[in-house]
Amino acid sequence: MNPRRELYTLVGADLLSNLGTRISVVAIPWLVLETTGSPTRMGLVAAAETLPYMLSSALATPWADRFGVRRTSVFVDAASAAAMAVVALAPWLGFGTLLVLVAIAGGLRGIGDRVKHVLFKPAAERAGVPLIRLTSAYDGLARGMTLFGAVLGGLLIDWVGLTTAIWIDAATFAVCALLIGVLVRPPAPTQVAPREPYLRALRGGFAYLRTDRTLLTMLIVVSVSNMFANASVAVWIPLWVNEVLGDPAGFGLLLGLFSAGALLGNLLFTMLGTRLPGGVVFAVGLVISGPPRLLALGLSENLLVALVVTFLSGIGIAAVNPLLGTALYQRVPAALQTRVLGISGSVAFLGLPVGALLGGWSVALLGLTPALLVMAAVCLVLTVGPLLLNRSSRHPVAEPATPTPV
How far is the CA of 309 from the CAs of 42, 224, 228, 375, in angstroms? Predict the structure, then answer.
């Protein structure tokens, strides 16, 4: 198979499974609401999926190395299709069964996402595509799928019904397994790493991250950035919209402008990323994406100001994930990539649940406007401070690879 066609197939299959996941993010809470009418149970279902996702991303990777990355991808996508198909029957199976099924689906999806990303690097190298260009393009497409999938999920529930919408999610996983199983054929490794006991293999992944200060610093600041981003979406922005505008449409507009800025930023970074200094762009992206949004909300009651700053913040965030992904691919030895990428994903996501708690706690303690101003300063210190300390220790952020024609 043509190397570029194989790369496009791999990325397309991964994006297809992301689309299905976005549909289920809308459909499953709606299923719980329709069948139980309980907001508490909606939260339980969300937690039942998120926690296994984070755990399997890190803890299941040694088994993926042992079983084979491609075979693991095919297996977990097929199993995810089966799990989601059964979720569609949940109203007849009971809420307890639904929790178990959603937890299984979350755990499968965690390891499935990680192993597909491990396959990206060798596929890109065979196709002659620079890693920075691949990670940037993928990040932009994934953001697009997030937007489109959420909208599509709501439309599908209206058009074909809740159960059919969940079955469509199951079908996306089945197609993903079929595409990778039939069309993605990475060459066998020239050197086979010795098989290690599970705990030793897992410790190896953690040990590598402890020794690579650059990667660890990047992961910490991305996790912090995710924490403030989730606090903004879950608490600060809705409260600002309610107090200042009194119209929930403003909430959707602010989120939409941020996503639009991120998509534009991804497009620009895909074209220019190989020519830019990675460390500087990473730091500037973090500075632009976080504190200015909070300052705009804390210092102004003008929607236009908030929209412009939010759009620019979206452009800033577009470089952060691609540069982190490129650093992981370039710095981590091939034999450790499955484990280190899995652990890295879990570390980066740790800030999400903390962010929701931080948002509510800060407003309860300080009030909305003081919380926004204080947290803007804290966000700046916690994201840029570690990068400055790391650079002063002569461990600069990895630069993009040498440009390669695409």
Answer: 33, 20, 16, 17
pLDDT digits (tens, 9 = 90+) for 144-159: 887 787 778 878 888 8
3-state class of 89 per DSSP?
A: coil
Q: In which region does residue 94 sit, left (phi positive, over 0), alpha (psi from -120 to 50) or beta (all else)?
A: left
> 196, 204 in Cβ contact below 8 A?
yes
List helix spans (H) across 232-350.
237-240, 249-272, 278-289, 291-299, 303-317, 320-331, 337-349
| Spatial distance between the Cα atoms of 140 and 368, rounded to a whole number of angstroms | 32
State the pLDDT at residue 100: 92
Q: How far is CA 370 from CA 131, 189, 277, 374, in A?
A: 42, 56, 35, 6
The model's confidence at residue 401, banded by pLDDT at 50, 70 and 90, is very low
State the Cα–Cα distance between residues 237 and 223, nearest whole angstrom: 20
Whole-angstrom distance, CA of residue 397 vs CA of residue 356: 29
* pLDDT tier for residue 193 given thresholds of 50, 70 and 90: low
How much is the pTM? 0.81
Say what the pLDDT of residue 194 is: 64
Give the residue among 157, 184, 135 at the shortest CA–CA distance from 22: 157
Q: Which two tokens stand for residue 22?
A: 């976005």
Closest C-alpha to 225, from 382, 359, 51: 382
Task: Judge residue 122's burial from the number of C-beta atoms within 10 Å of its C-beta, 0-12 exposed, 13-18 middle, 19 or more buried.
Answer: buried
Question: Which token pair is 377?
Answer: 């300063």
DSSP run (H or E) holding 40? helix 39-59
Query: Poorest-confidence range of 39-43, 74-78, 161-165?
Result: 39-43
Per-residue DSSP letter, 9? H
Q: In sequence order, which residues have a C-beta less than 8 Å from that of residue 187 and are 6 or more positions away? A: 122
For the cut 50, the answer to whether the pLDDT of residue 397 exceeds it is: no
